[in-house]
């Protein structure tokens, strides 16, 4: 899109470079240990140390992965970054949990003919204690993360405990590695661990202090709150001074409403207005829980803070003969931003919007969509899974038969597919598109769930 700003080069690092950097850091402790030239022990002992060192390096990089740094998630998107974070967490926990049980050599130093301790682990009480603490905390942290939705805690409580728990694991783990590790006590590897732990803790400082502090200087206020459909609201904010953040149509921000940015009560919401509407930023918010249920009663003038923009559900840098936009429920929010910007730029390409809801009362911006259909080369298909009797549009979920019928276009592979909505809907739509012969590289999607 022409109205899109150019992202700084740091936010455009190619995913292959990111992956190469990630693998290099994960394997660095092995290289540093090998360089020490110590005579290796038996296979099981060496495997146990190696797995623990690689897993610990991966654990420390988890802080950076989940720290919402645009240098990390700018190109691949928050969705994929968080999926990678979760996948890595599950792998590293296995490495670390089996680590103590792999050792073949005894814990205590019992052999009189082995004064150097070559044939014993020779751990002292403090290093065993920090190892056990890190081991138990890690198991708890992962279990709580996997079962988060079923816990009787607020998301914010879980998030704070997750961050603090991870910090405790990093510190205890580093103590254990340096004091008990055969290789990690060496100055080069010890320095490596200390630098890595410092970076990990620094990311927490950035997320919880530096970023909120920066937001404080750029306060917004709520200028309108209007009901847009059943249980869904359009909230508009504008900055007290100066211009709103620079963003690309389709991106999202972490929004804090009515609280200080340090309160850790921010929630991710797509910007549903378009860059051309700045300095105003509009959001389309559906009531689903303790925070969003209060949106309709938000007083005008309420202070707002914005961390962003984030996400790569944008048309920027992607060429396409035409656009297929597929939204489920409030997933229409970023797609409205894209459509509004396309309209502001008089984009001449053919477009199709397939927009699924359960009920007719849930359809958002219906009049505006009708209007956009007249002004752009846009076909709008509203799909309902529980339609009223007189409904003459398509019925059902956004599944294979419905999409196949609506997306019957020539040269489907040359079009760009932008998909947004709940996680389950995205998975099913992506699978269907693949079956319809759409290459994955032509699909850009964003799930409205962040863990
Ligand atoms: C990238 C992205 C863009 C989104 N855009 C929109 C949008 O435009 N409109 C819209 O209505 N919804 C959007 N959402 C979903 C929205 O963030 C959640 O519905 C909202 O945070 C729920 O908060 P709650 O306290 O009311 O509900 P709760 O009942 O507390 O939470 C419901 C679920 O929402 C998620 N959630 C809750 N709080 C947070 C938080 N602070 N940070 C991250 N996730 C949280 C958790 O998965 C939780 O299980 C988006 C989500 C993501 C990840």
UniProtKB/TrEMBL annotation:
One of its GO terms (molecular function) is 2 iron, 2 sulfur cluster binding. The keyword Transferase does not apply. GO terms for cellular component: membrane. Residues 215-316 form the FAD-binding FR-type domain. Pfam families: Ferric_reduct, NAD_binding_1. It is a multi-pass membrane protein. Keywords: 2Fe-2S, FAD, Flavoprotein, Iron, Iron-sulfur, Membrane, Metal-binding, Oxidoreductase, Transmembrane, Transmembrane helix. The keyword Iron-sulfur applies. It comes from the Bacteria. The chain crosses the membrane at residues 16-35, 47-66, 87-105, 125-146, 158-178, 190-211, 320-339. It is found in: Membrane. Coiled coil: none annotated. Its cofactor is FAD; [2Fe-2S] cluster. This is Ferredoxin reductase family protein. It comes from Pelagibius litoralis.
């Amino acid at each position: 899109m022409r109205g899109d700003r150019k992202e700084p080069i740091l936010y455009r690092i190619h995913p292959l470079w990111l992956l190469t950097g990630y693998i290099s850091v994960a394997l660095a402790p092995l290289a540093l240990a090998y360089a020490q030239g110590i005579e290796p022990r038996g296979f099981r002992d060496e495997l146990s140390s190696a797995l623990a060192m690689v897993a610990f390096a991966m654990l420390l990089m988890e802080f950076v992965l989940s720290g919402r740094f645009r240098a990390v998630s700018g190109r691949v998107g928050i969705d994929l970054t968080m999926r990678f974070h979760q996948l890595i967490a599950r792998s590293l926990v296995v490495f670390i949990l089996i680590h103590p049980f792999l050792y073949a050599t005894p814990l205590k130093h019992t052999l009189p003919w082995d004064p150097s301790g070559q044939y014993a682990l020779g751990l002292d009480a403090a290093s065993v204690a920090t190892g056990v603490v890190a081991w138990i905390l890690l198991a708890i942290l992962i279990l709580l993360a996997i079962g988060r939705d079923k816990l009787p805690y607020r998301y914010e409580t879980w998030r704070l405990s997750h961050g603090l728990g991870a910090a405790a694991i990093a510190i205890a783990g580093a103590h254990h590695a340096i004091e008990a590790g055969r290789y990690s006590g060496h100055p080069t590897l010890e320095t490596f661990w200390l630098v890595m732990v410092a970076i990990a803790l620094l990311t927490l400082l950035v997320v919880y202090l530096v970023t909120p502090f920066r937001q404080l200087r750029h306060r917004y206020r709520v200028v309108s709150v209007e009901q847009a459909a059943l249980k869904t609201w359009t909230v508009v904010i504008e900055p007290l001074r100066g211009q709103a953040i620079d963003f690309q149509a389709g991106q999202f921000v972490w929004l804090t409403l009515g609280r200080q940015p340090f309160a850790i009560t921010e929630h991710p919401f797509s910007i549903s207005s378009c860059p051309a509407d700045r300095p105003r930023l509009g959001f389309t918010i559906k009531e689903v829980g303790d925070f969003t249920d209060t949106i309709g009663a938000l007083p005008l003038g309420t202070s707002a803070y914005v961390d962003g923009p984030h996400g790569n559900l944008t048309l920027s840098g992607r060429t396409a003969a035409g656009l297929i936009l597929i939204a489920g429920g409030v997933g229409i929010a970023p797609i409205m931003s894209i459509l509004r910007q396309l309209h502001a730029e008089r984009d001449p390409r053919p477009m199709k919007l397939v927009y699924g809801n359960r009920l007719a009362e849930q359809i958002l911006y219906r009049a505006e969509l009708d209007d956009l259909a007249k002004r752009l080369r846009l076909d709008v298909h509203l799909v309902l899974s529980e339609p009223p009797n007189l409904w003459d549009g398509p019925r059902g979920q956004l599944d294979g038969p419905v999409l196949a019928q609506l997306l019957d276009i020539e040269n489907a592979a040359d079009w760009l597919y932008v998909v947004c909505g709940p996680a389950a809907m995205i998975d099913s739509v992506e699978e269907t598109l693949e079956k319809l012969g759409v290459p994955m590289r032509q699909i850009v999607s964003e799930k409205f769930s962040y863990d």
